[in-house]
Design goal:
By secondary structure, this protein is mostly beta strands. The chain is built from one helix and 16 strands. It starts with a strand and ends with a strand.
Length: about 210
């Protein structure tokens, strides 16, 4: 973010992180210009969140690095990683509850479009992308804005593609006999899995349309 005015120094704040559905304020201090001078602030910026929502965000890369076995299931979506956020729990039926709310009291959106089941509440899980396609994952647990229609919210933002071709690939291999048996339950809850997958993105029209 760059701020300038006549006879004052130009100040540029770099490295500002703006998470999904977040509003931040970056304050600038412009001084009287003594010469052709520009000030670049790369750290310790005065970035202030003006949103009272209690939220937690993770990037797709952070989710991908978690030691979880969601890839061992038929649905590679990491939606259950929301339980790693404070105040989020999973009930015996597999429904997510946020800050003690009912499972139906949470809105679910993908790139700004609601994917909440109208009749039963909760997310339409088939519409959640694979972790390979996720750019950001945000959970609002309290103080949600009225625009979301529910007290709490889970937002997923997908990768947009760039002017360069990028891709990823994974091979998730898990065998039940590789893991120990729970000494109390006398049960090994692990799954056998041999899952291959990947993703690719790039330009369709340079600087305009991507996939």
């Amino acid at each position: 973010i760059t701020a300038s005015a006549p006879n004052l120094t130009t100040v540029k704040n770099e490295g500002i992180v703006l998470p999904a559905r977040e509003t931040v304020r970056s304050d600038f201090k412009l001084q009287v210009q003594s010469a052709n001078q520009q000030i670049v602030v790369t750290s310790h910026q005065e970035v202030v969140s003006v949103d009272l929502t209690q939220a937690s965000s993770m990037s797709g890369k952070e989710i991908d690095s978690l030691p979880l076995n969601f890839r061992a299931t038929n649905a590679p979506s990491p939606i259950n990683t929301a339980t790693l956020t404070a105040g989020v729990n999973e009930d015996p039926s597999g429904n997510l509850t946020f800050s003690g709310q009912l499972p139906t009291a949470t809105s679910f959106t993908l790139d700004g479009t609601s994917i909440q089941m109208v009749r039963l509440g909760g997310p339409t899980r088939d519409l959640f992308p694979s972790v390979e396609g996720i750019a950001e994952f945000r959970v609002n647990t309290a103080g949600n804005g009225a625009e979301y229609a529910q007290p709490t919210d889970l937002t997923v933002v997908t990768k947009s593609g760039t002017n360069q071709f990028h891709g990823s690939a994974f091979w998730f291999l898990q065998r039940k006999n590789w893991n120990s048996v729970d000494p109390i339950a006398k049960y090994n809850p692990s799954l056998d899995a041999n899952t291959l997958g990947g993703s690719i993105g790039g330009p369709i029209i340079k600087d305009h349309t991507f996939f």
